[in-house]
Amino acid sequence: MVDIIDFQKHHLNDVLTILHESNCLHYQNNPDYFASRDKSVSKPYLNWILTDPKTFGFVALVNDQIAGIVTVGLEKRIDNVYQADTYYKIYDIAVSSKFKKRGIGRRLHEAVVQKARRENIPQVELEVYSFNTGAKTFYKKLNYQEVCSTLVLKINS
User: Fold this and answer.
1) Which of 4, 13, 79, 83 sits between 20 and 30 A of 40, alpha carbons compared?
2) At what angle do helices 43-51 and 12-29 cross, to 10 degrees?
3) Which of 29, 61, 1, 20 shows the shortest CA–CA distance to 130?
4) CA-wise closest residue to 127 among 57, 84, 79, 72
5) CA proximity to 127, closest of 115, 138, 136, 137
6) Inter-residue contact 32 to 131 (CB < 8 Å)
7) pLDDT confidence of residue 157
């Protein structure tokens, strides 16, 4: 059984471990872009998620063990060329390797979508890195559409 609950301060250490696993995966797949860092580097980010009124998160619990996390922020566009000027942006969605392929990512995502519906937020957005074909397939199944690409030019000094 999977329970989805609000991310709270007492979840911090377990969530740091799950995010670190995800960050290591990113580094392994693109070491020219990502840095290998200790898990504590994400602590200020998670404290921001916990304290800023425009951000929130959910954790997935399996037998009282944290199996996954999603972090989200309410974003507003100043530019008026978009249909949705207010939206939720998923910053991170990560599931521990011990709990993959159990529908946990889908359940975390659904919690965000349900909150968006309750709050009359018209859109959910996220970014996915080009190497992460598994995540791309997952998001495509959830009916996400690709609308842009981020390009990077490294400047050597």
Assistant:
1) 4
2) 130
3) 29
4) 72
5) 136
6) no
7) 57
Going from N- to C-terminal start, the domains of the chain cover: 2-141
Cα separations in angstroms, 138 against 81, 114, 118, 132:
29, 18, 24, 10
Q: Using DSSP, state whether 109 is helix, strand or coil.
A: helix
Q: Please tell me the pTM assigned to this model.
A: 0.94
Q: Under CATH, to which class is 2-141 assigned?
A: alpha beta
DSSP string, 22-70: HHHHHHHH-TTTS----GGGGHHHHHHHHH-TTEEEEEEEETTEEEEEE
Report which of 116, 5, 20 is spatially closest to residue 70, judged by C-alpha positions.
5
Look at residue 79 in the predicted model and tell me its pLDDT. Answer: 84
Q: Are 127 and 150 in contact (CB under 8 A)?
A: yes
Q: What is the mean pLDDT of each run of 10 residues along the chain (157 residues)?
A: 96 97 94 93 97 98 96 93 93 96 96 98 95 93 93 84
Q: Which pLDDT belongs to residue 50?
A: 98
Residue type at 101 in one-letter notation: K
Six-digit token pair at 7?
Answer: 């991310």
| One-letter amino acid for residue 35 of the chain | A
Q: In this structure, what token pair is assigned to residue 21?
A: 């696993």
